[in-house]
Design a protein that fits this description.
The chain is mostly helical. The protein has 16 helices and four strands. The strands form two sheets. A two-stranded antiparallel sheet has the order 1-2.
Amino acid sequence: MFRSFASFNYRVWFIGALVSNVGAWMQQTAQSWVVLTQLTDNDASAMGVTMALQFGPPLLLVGVSGWVTDRFDRRRILMVTQSTLLLFSTAIGILLLLGLMTLPMMFGFALATGLVMAFDNPARQAFVSDLVTREYASNAVALNAASFNGARMIGPAVAGVLIVAVGTGWVFLINAATYIAMVVALMMIRAGELVPRRAMDAGARLADGFRYVARRPDLLVLFAMVFLMGALAMNFPIFASTMALEFGQEADGFGLLSSILAIGSLAGALLAARRARARMRVAILSTGLFAVVSIVSAAMPLYPLYALCLVFVGFAVVTTLTTANGYVQTTTDPSVRGRVLALYMAVLMGGTPLGAPVVGWVAAEFGPRVAILVGAAGGLVACGIGVTWVIASGRLHRRASGGLRLELDETRPISVITRPQPVVAPEEFSNEGAQTTPIRLEASDDDEDGEEEGRVRAASS
């Protein structure tokens, strides 16, 4: 489960990210509560607008941010973005302490944060592949999710207590301090031990990432599922805060709900880390699980029962996203990985500007329970898309031995049309990552299918 910790660089990264993630979750909780209770009179629609402004830029800048991630040093990109976010958190905290913050100003900070995150997110995702060898990439992605959700257990609960005790301004300032941990970690990483990656030609086209995904039907289906989850299902700040108010809770009750959600999220991330590879079927089934448990949570009459349901909601969501992220990481050609990951993050986060205002309006007009059902509907549709693709692709069929039992084939080699690339050494790829790469795979003890040896062929343009 923790095999990626064998790398010094990954250990340093993991610790820095864990501290920074705790602060980020503290700030996310404080921001939602400020907008809902201090800057408005319990207006969930304003929360939806804030989320839309913050998550819109990654969608609009996807081409540029992905190109930057593939073209330039990812560690330096992260040092710039993390330092900038530190300054934003400091400014917001000071304005709140001085009583000068207004709703339009918070909207402006949300938009500015979104612009920075448009470059930070794909660089973060792709940088993991620079820290560990390809056969550990899926495990490292899952451990990243474990760090993210482990922090999610701590951050919101601590933020809820601090908001009640000392006010929201100090939460933002504490988060600003946690960014220092990430900057220090980036400085400690040994550049000489980073996994080499093919240098991208300065003239490489931004459209290559789009073209690559367009030729991968499995990625198109996965992106559609992730979009629906991001747009309708993952508006947890709106769901949890409005449900907390409905149950008569204060900021500490809201923070506790977010932390309880993280218990299931952490469990999902750790189980994903145990799997030898990321599989589409797991992502599909977990979207269906999310829809079911969300419907159940919307019917819960008591705060403790609703909180219990959130454990399973968190498990389903993180299983979906961790599996999807690992699948994209390990089946994408390294030469376009940054651009494809930028597309993935844009699809995931870019759905929020469209869905969050709608979900916020539904919560304000019809109540939070109806809003949760809207999110559940998004999960059901996502699951339906995945199941339809599995059946239409011919992977699901009756057993050759006869009878009524069904079996599901593994993902078959996929023909991909990309720009011609020079041949590289086989060790640059993991067995999973080579599914669309015309190189010979040698037997490996690190892969569950390592006893087989074969060729995976891809069409070239």
